[in-house]
Structure formats: structure tokens, C-alpha cells
């Protein structure tokens, strides 16, 4: 059922060919596309979402990039989400459903996506929205190395970065497959875990779907790397 002309569109994990046809067609139909970006540690401004849109050939004249500060202290980011939500609300109500307005998100807009803050504000204010599903990054990671994540009765545990050794051991003993998003948030814990528990299999990924994509199952290589923000690890108990 059609709700409104305000859409949250999933771009997929980075490879423009992994966007769904539904998302691509909606982008092409959109009159305005709001796209998040952030300032990097080096001081430059980058929008991975805008880079995907460029590769898809989306008319850049309808793309509006907004800044989302990246920091463990999320106060500034939440201010940015509020500002863009109320800007979207104003534009949407001004055009009375005559324009198609979209907000893009990497991966899937309903899976650890910062755009959910914007979506929630709009819905709380009585604005109906549409969400278009996409391919989450960990599925693209597994496909890239022909890894079957789960089979039969196995359980999948997805962890947003912060883990403990006790939690990992408990889940692996129960034969759960563990996907860790944003590995850098628990880099010290995970590197120590790799050393202490070599019996498990570790698949590590950076920047999946991009030109600088990297993956390895070699624990020594993982130990030697400085882990970036866009990183994923899949741990399995193969015994």
C-alpha cells in the first residue's frame, strides 16, 4: 500500500551493482535525494553514499548532501538528524505530496542505519514514510569469499561492535555464527581473542564492495592491521 512520496532507500554495501532494482528505480524517480556525509579524520569531507549515487549515474542536481558528525559522543549527530528530519518535513508538507523525496542509506536502511533516527522523528510527527530494503554488508562479505554463514538449525548473532570474551565464548560454544559490525570498536578484545582461541575460524573484511576492499582469514594478518571503521568479522565454530 502506498503511504506517501517520502522514501528511505537502501543503497547496498558499496558495490553499485548490489543495489536492488526497486531502489534504483525509486532513485531515478525522485525529485530530491538527501544523502549523508561526514568529515574524515584528515579533515576532508566524504560521502560514500554520494559516491554510490555517482556511479549509478543519478543526476547530481537533485542530490543534497548533509553532514553527520562521526564521534562516539553522538550529541552532535543527533542534532544533525533532528535538523534534517524537520527540513524534510517542511519540504514534504510544502509540496503536498507532489514531489518524490528520498533519503539514502548504505547497506539496508533498517539494519544498524543512522537514518532510522530521521525516520523515527518523521513518524512521530505524523509523517508517513516508505522503506526500501537492501543488501546488508555482512551478506556481501560472505558472498565475496564463498562463505555459507549459517546452515540447518544454526543461529546467527549480529553484534554492533562492542563484544566481550565471555560473550563470544558463550555464543561459539552454542555453535552460533557471530557477525561483528564495526570491528574497530572492539579491536583490542578481538585481537586478544584470536590469539587465545585459534580453534575458531575468523573471516575479516574491510570496505566490502569498494575498490579498496580487503579480506583475510589469516589471524596473523588481522593482528597486524590497524582496523578501520568500515570493517566486519565473521566468526564460526567449525568443530
What's this model, at a glance?
The protein is an alpha/beta fold and 239 residues long. It has helices at residues 21-29, 48-55, 75-95, 115-124, 137-144, 165-173, 187-196, 219-224, and strands at residues 6-10, 32-39, 45-46, 63-67, 101-105, 130-132, 156-159, 177-181, 201-206, 214-216, 231-236.
Give an overview in words.
The chain has eight helices and eleven strands. The protein has helices spanning 21-29, 48-55, 75-95, 115-124, 137-144, 165-173, 187-196, 219-224; strands spanning 6-10, 32-39, 45-46, 63-67, 101-105, 130-132, 156-159, 177-181, 201-206, 214-216, 231-236. β9 (201-206) and β10 form a beta hairpin. The chain is elongated. The chain starts with 5 loop residues before the first strand and ends with a strand. The model has no long low-confidence stretch (mean pLDDT 90).
Percent strand equals 15-25%
Order of helices and strands: EHEEHEHEHEHEHEHEEHE
Which sheet architecture does the biggest sheet show?
6 strands, mixed
Q: Using only CA atoms, what is the Rg?
A: 19 Å
What's the number of extended β-strand segments?
11
What would the average pLDDT be, to the nearest integer?
90
Task: Please report the number of helical segments.
Answer: 8
How much helix is in the residues? 25-40%
- What gap, in angstroms, lies between the N and C termini? 47 Å
Query: Structural class from helices and strands?
Result: alpha/beta
What shape does the CA trace take? elongated
Low-confidence stretches: none
